[in-house]
Amino acid sequence: MKKLALHWQILIGMALGVAWGMMASSFGLNSFTTDWISPFGTIFINLLKLIAVPLVLVSLITGVSSLSDISRLSRIGSKTIGIYLVTTVLAVTLGLILVNVFEPGKAFSPEKRDEFKEQFAGATTEKSSNAETVKQQGPLQPLVDIVPSNIFRSMTDNGSMLQVIFFALLFGIALILIPPDKAQPVNDFFEGVNMAILKIVDIIMMTAPYGVFALLAGLVVDFAGNDPSAAMELLLVLGYYCIVVAIGLALMIFVVYPALVLTVGKTKYGHFLRGIFPAQMLAFSTSSSAATLPVTMECSEKNLGINKEITSFVLPLGATINMDGTSLYQAVAAVFIAQAYGIDLDIMAQLGIVMTATLASIGAAAVPGAGTVMLVIVLQQAGIPVEGIALILAPDRILDMLRTTVNVTGDTTVAMMVARTEGQLHPPTEITVR
């Protein structure tokens, strides 16, 4: 019997996880789920995080050193960052258009707003405190943070991925500049390490369906508590806001990205979606672009035919600085909260949101919930009450899953565009998915 493809296994794991979570909430199995099932989801996430830094470090070094030409590296780098900024601004602008047209915040009653403020007071204070720390830093602090003082310390923290990328780029450039006979043994070493790391990724992905099941089961139990109807009621109250965000994210995946893939990538979008579907499903279940990175790279190379030289540079960079889904969500959430408080934002305030959300998305870590902290900075810049973040915390985990899927799709779209313009796209005749 033919083995079921990985993406179908992940989908089945997701469905069973949701079903188990609802059943556990109904029959009082919350503690059992939290103690005996949810930890396996944490283990799966830890395994993905474990391999993220080594994968980025080694793949970037091998990718950059293989270019053998500094001018080519500069061209690919500037092209990549330029396209990332354009797609991010498009996402923020789309979010602002939708939230101003549908005005979901005006559906909130003052009573419900006060109820949410009280319920999420603790979480709101924590997010505000974290954002205040970021805000008090100087204007050039993000640039300072990119350069590590100790690369080994940076490699112990997935949140320092930009520092790892900086070191890997510097190391790769150095390999290009030294004599080829001296560089070759080092290149061979990293090539071997890269193959070993990719094999570890294969091993980890064998556990993906079970890890996704545990993640979703734990998520549903945490959200619903002992009363599944409470979760349903909360979702209905915030449903309008969620729908607006979901529409924006759907437009990115089914309108904006197809236009880019078809016109620049010269590829049928159906082929593109089939190729990255496993990565999208993993992004949806983990809410982490960094954790999904190994699978995104594998799908891009094996299923879409993007040269490893491009994926090893563009995708790790994208997982760190390209957050189209997150920036769109920040635009919608900020105006939504303003509407709920009865605040009218003029065109200049909304242009400020575009700028702040774009820059905030670059600084957001590629881990679950990071976008929420950066949202506080967006709110403060626009003069919107930070306390209003309590209004959107309830459904944020679900929306985080959706926007991470958009983030990963956007990264792959840009990788395909860069690969096509560099003559490094050679689509396989058939998509093979494990």
Automatic annotation (TrEMBL):
Transmembrane annotation, as ranges: 40-61, 81-102, 160-179, 200-225, 237-264
PROSITE patterns the UniProt entry points to: NA_DICARBOXYL_SYMP_2
InterPro entries listed in its UniProt record: DAACS, Na-dicarboxylate_symporter, Na-dicarboxylate_symporter_CS, Na:dicarbo_symporter_sf
Membrane topology reported for the UniProt record: Multi-pass membrane protein
Subcellular location: Membrane
Keyword Membrane: yes
Keywords, alphabetical: Glycoprotein, Membrane, Symport, Transmembrane, Transmembrane helix, Transport
PANTHER family: AMINO ACID TRANSPORTER, SODIUM/DICARBOXYLATE SYMPORTER-RELATED
Name this protein carries in UniProt: Dicarboxylate/amino acid:cation symporter
Organism of derivation: Pontibacter anaerobius
